[in-house]
Design brief:
Largest sheet of chain B: 6 strands, mixed
Strand content of chain B: 25-35%
CATH topology of chain B: Rossmann fold
Number of strands of chain A: 13
Helix content of chain B: 25-40%
Radius of gyration of chain B: 18 Å
Number of domains of chain B: 1
Distance between the termini of chain A: 35 Å
Structural class of chain B: alpha/beta
Oligomer: heterodimer
Strand order of the largest sheet of chain B: 6-7-8-3-9-10
Shape of chain B: globular
Radius of gyration of chain A: 34 Å
Order of helices and strands of chain B: EEEHEEHEHHHEHEHEE
Order of helices and strands of chain A: HHEEHEEHEHEHEEHEHEEEHEHHHHH
Shape of chain A: elongated
Distance between the termini of chain B: 42 Å
CATH superfamily of chain B: P-loop containing nucleotide triphosphate hydrolases
Number of strands of chain B: 10
Chain lengths: 435, 241
């Protein structure tokens, strides 16, 4: 009974709206744009958020990255022509982590040096990463062809290397790199494998600029990587490097390791282990020459930031929805006064106030809900174009669709009630006389 | 809530419309404007009554009273044995929808609805099923001679045809009284004659008709003429036919 009545009410609503097709369409446009912008904004916000989180997740949520940083300038060293600066993480530190912190599962010490590499007549800047065979375990880097470094390479300090795809592109073009020799300084390294590129995350790029690697780095650290056994690097490059600085001329630096990456078994252990690392390091390092980066922490911060970002975007879009709602209310007020006589006729023929409210409210709801539907379609389309042309990731979540649609329904009720009540409270005698 | 549809229909015994000392006044600033004064009126089932009077005699107000669109200031009004003087807005709507069939001077059809849908309006508010009201609306439209124009909009019909739709609509809820306000006022004489013929036919079928008019020609067709003057019933005449 109620359902039948609802069906007829809706049918009647469509009929009345159809009488003023253009007006109804224009009014609905406000809601369409409102709803679609809510969905699009939320999709863009969500896309950016997932992007950032995935990039950070690539650093490894179970990892703790300890980096060498240059300590504040020593006062004693000032004025001298040539100084030796010794700082940073050491092999001893890695050993202490291994023995002193129980939750640690994997430890990867890395040495990073910026170099120029040569193959035949081609030359490129790259980063030599002196590392251990189990490096891929803690990083997203994967072997594409050939193999990664082995324990044998490590043990015998072999002159072998694994290049990432970027270096391969720059040095080899179409040649097969495996088995070829790449020259750095006076030494040759045989390519045994090709690995995926190391991703440049905003976070790590930011950190790397503060990073004190041996030689001067190419700006932004945006170079390919060449993985060489840590033992080989230690033997061939040593630990000394020259630094030119404007204040004190030449400085000689001695750094053993640029970073140590520690992986724990479970995400829950990350913060505890970070504390242990901190305690351990502060005991042995007098200078403040290290920095602890916890991707998990970054991830949480990014999440918080993105949530605010999404709320801001969403509220801006919600305002446009509100404006659309006001437009609907305006039109409904006009409709009600225009149809005063119809209201009078209906009242005379037995309609209660409630019936009139239902009639006009359902017309408003038809406008806003159909606007909501079309807005959902358009709202799903906009992110598609943003992704396609704007190279931005967008993610439409089911909840954003439901939210936008729900809001359009709420707008319909909120802005439809007042005109509907105005209609219902008209005096039937007066409205029958209305011209 | 009053459920009218289960009520037994009233027989010919006893008047179906009774007004006792009914007064209506409006407050205009400090002066009280007394539009109706001590109206006493009883109408039997099946009667054909014309209410006449010059402008300002209170005709329209009396029409609104009979049509339950307005409440009296004092006095009693019983329609179908039930006092309606003290009913609230919803109950009045209910009474109008169940017991009164309105025919207006300017037809008052709803522009966006077609013939059948216009006829269905009172049944819609009375809760008839869609099927039932559709069937009944078609029957009534055919009865008033619009069987060929069921899907037409009011704007596609002549004045006489529109008024016939309005009569069909007034009949759709099977009312106690049919209340017509200048039903031929907006029509040319031949369409007007058609409408009057339909009213005559309804009267012959036993319907109770109350027509408010200032057209003496219509009044001669009624069994009884109630003449209003200055808010009072001036005199009542009975036509022998």
């Amino acid at each position: 009974m109620f359902i039948f009545r609802l069906k007829r009410t809706v049918k009647l609503g469509f009929k009345s709206l159809w009488m003023h097709r253009l007006r109804s369409t224009l009014t609905t446009l406000g809601i369409i744009f409102g709803v679609s912008s809510v969905i699009a904004m939320l999709a863009i916000g969500e896309g950016a958020s997932r992007d950032a989180q995935e990039k950070i997740a690539q650093l490894g949520s179970r990892n703790i990255i300890i980096k060498t940083i240059k300590p504040p300038e020593d006062q004693a060293a000032g004025g001298q022509q040539q100084t030796l600066m010794e700082y940073g993480l050491t092999y001893k530190d890695a050993e202490r982590f291994q023995n002193g912190i129980p939750d640690v599962q994997v430890i990867v010490p890395n040495r990073r040096i910026s170099q120029q590499a040569l193959y035949r007549n081609r030359r490129t800047s790259l980063e030599v990463v002196g590392t251990v065979p189990w490096y891929p375990e803690i990083s997203p880097t994967r072997v594409r062809f050939g193999r990664f470094l082995s324990t044998t390479d490590m043990h015998y300090r072999q002159g072998v290397c694994v290049l990432d795809e970027r270096v391969v592109r720059e040095l080899f073009a179409l040649d097969d790199p495996i088995g070829q020799d790449v020259k750095i300084g006076g030494d040759y390294y045989r390519v045994v494998g090709v690995a995926t590129e190391q991703s440049q995350t905003p976070a790590s790029a930011d950190l790397e600029s503060k990073d004190a690697t041996g030689a001067k780095k190419a700006s932004g650290a945006n170079v390919g990587a060449m993985y060489v056994p840590l033992t080989t690097v230690r033997e061939r490059f040593g630990e000394m490097s020259m630094q030119m600085s404007s204040s004190s001329g030449q400085t000689l630096e001695r750094i053993e390791l640029q970073e140590i990456i520690v992986q724990v078994q479970d995400v829950d252990m990350v913060m505890g282990t970070r504390q242990s690392v901190q305690t351990l390091l502060s005991r042995f390092h007098k200078k403040n020459d290290y920095e602890i980066v916890v991707p998990l922490e970054l991830m949480r911060q990014a999440k918080d930031f993105q949530r605010i970002f999404t709320i801001v975007l969403g509220s801006i879009a919600a305002i446009s929805l509100l404006v659309g709602g006001i437009g609907i209310m305006n039109i409904m007020m006009a409709t009600v006064s225009e149809r005063t006589r119809e209201i009078g006729i209906r009242r005379a023929l037995g309609a209660k106030k409630k019936d009139i409210v239902i009639q006009f409210l359902s017309e408003t709801l038809i406008l806003t809900l159909s606007g909501g539907f079309l807005g959902m379609a358009l709202g799903a389309l906009i992110p598609f174009f943003v992704t396609h042309f704007g190279q931005m990731r967008t993610v439409i979540t089911g909840s954003s669709l439901i939210l936008a649609f729900g809001i359009s329904g709420a707008v319909g009720i909120a802005f439809g009630l007042y005109p509907a009540y105005r209609a219902a409270n008209m005096d039937p005698i007066e409205s029958l006389r209305h011209e | 809530m009053i459920e009218f549809r289960q009520e037994p229909k009233f027989g010919t015994d006893g008047p179906i419309l009774v007004m006792e000392d009914l007064c209506k006044s409006y407050q205009l600033g400090h002066t009280e404007l007394r539009v109706l004064r001590e109206i006493n009126l009883a109408i039997e089932s099946g009667e054909y009554v014309a209410i006449m009077g010059p402008s300002g005699s209170g005709k329209s107000t009396l029409l609104n009273m009979i049509g339950c669109l307005d409440r009296p200031t004092s006095g009693d009004y019983r329609l179908g044995g039930q006092s309606v003087s003290a009913l609230d807005d919803d109950e009045l709507s209910m009474i109008r929808g169940a017991r009164i069939g309105f025919v207006f001077q300017s037809f008052n059809l709803i522009a966006q609805l077609n013939v059948v849908e216009n006829i269905e309006i009172p049944m819609y508010y009375q809760g008839y099923s869609e099927h039932e009201s559709d069937e009944r609306a078609r029957e009534l439209a055919t009865m008033v001679g619009l069987g060929e124009r069921l899907g037409h909009r009011p704007s596609e019909l002549s004045g006489g045809q529109q008024q016939r739709v309005a009569i069909a609509r007034a009949l759709s809820n099977d009312p106690l009284i049919i209340l017509a306000d200048e039903p031929t006022g907006n029509l040319d004489s031949s369409s007007g004659a058609d409408i009057l013929a339909i009213l005559d036919r309804l009267h012959n079928e036993g319907k109770t008709l109350i027509v408010v008019t200032h057209d003496e020609h219509i009044a001669t067709r009624a069994e009884r003429v109630v003449r209003l003057f200055d808010g009072r019933i001036d005199k009542e005449e009975f036509n022998r036919r």
